Amino acid sequence: MRTLICIDLINDIVTTEGKLAGKGYAQFCADQHVLQNARTAQDYFRQNNWPVMHVRVGFAKGYVAQPKHSPLFGKAHQFGALEFGTWGTEFTVPTAPQNNELTFNKPRVSAFYGTGLEAALRALGITDIYLCGVATDLAIESAARDGHDRDYKVTVLADCCGAANNDDHQKSLTTLQKIVAVTTLQQLQHKAA
């Protein structure tokens, strides 16, 4: 059984109005049609009755679980970024969960850290996980590595992932090919046809 795991497709990260828009993720996603591709991937999985799951990063009001020493998350509280319960941590409309799809909140980079993701995967008998979302070199790479080490067959949908820039995106995909499959949405659909 396979599943699509959509990671960090939230307003603060992937929209031009988001608090992290200046980091480049929103522009990359727009230029490379990442959200449209991710939505097409979601629809493909839904049509085949394979689960679509959603994971988002964030911190509860007060930022108690925020790692203040982290170069990545350390200043989130100063900008009011990634705060659960705000527009910024809502899943962006094109790729938002549908029909009671499972959602998980994470306080760190990896989709597996501090979440019930693995318990859900085991309960559903998932053996193959497909990843889409942002950032390729951070959350996607981390989930791919964790998934690999937990003995899942992992596939990254390259054209359904985004990074701050193309260099970061491509370098990460090159590295990931050493441990997981990297493909495109079109190749996935063609292979299944």
Taking all residues together, what is the mean pLDDT?
A: 95
> Could you please say which CATH topology applies here?
Rossmann fold
- For CATH, the homologous superfamily is named as Isochorismatase-like
Percent strand equals 15-25%
Q: Which structural class do you get from the secondary structure elements?
A: alpha/beta
General description of the model:
The chain has 193 residues and is α/β, with parallel strands linked by helices. It has one domain (2-192): Isochorismatase-like (Rossmann fold). Helix content is 36%, strand content 19%. It has helices at residues 11-14, 25-31, 34-47, 76-79, 117-123, 136-149, 166-176, 185-192; strands spanning 2-7, 52-57, 103-106, 128-134, 153-162, 181-183. Strands 3-2-1-4-5-6 form a 6-stranded parallel beta sheet, with helices on both faces. β5 (153-162), α7 (166-176) and β6 (181-183) form a beta-alpha-beta unit. α6 (136-149) packs parallel to α7. The radius of gyration is 15 Å and the shape is globular. The two termini are 17 Å apart. The relative contact order is 0.19. The model has no long low-confidence stretch (mean pLDDT 95).
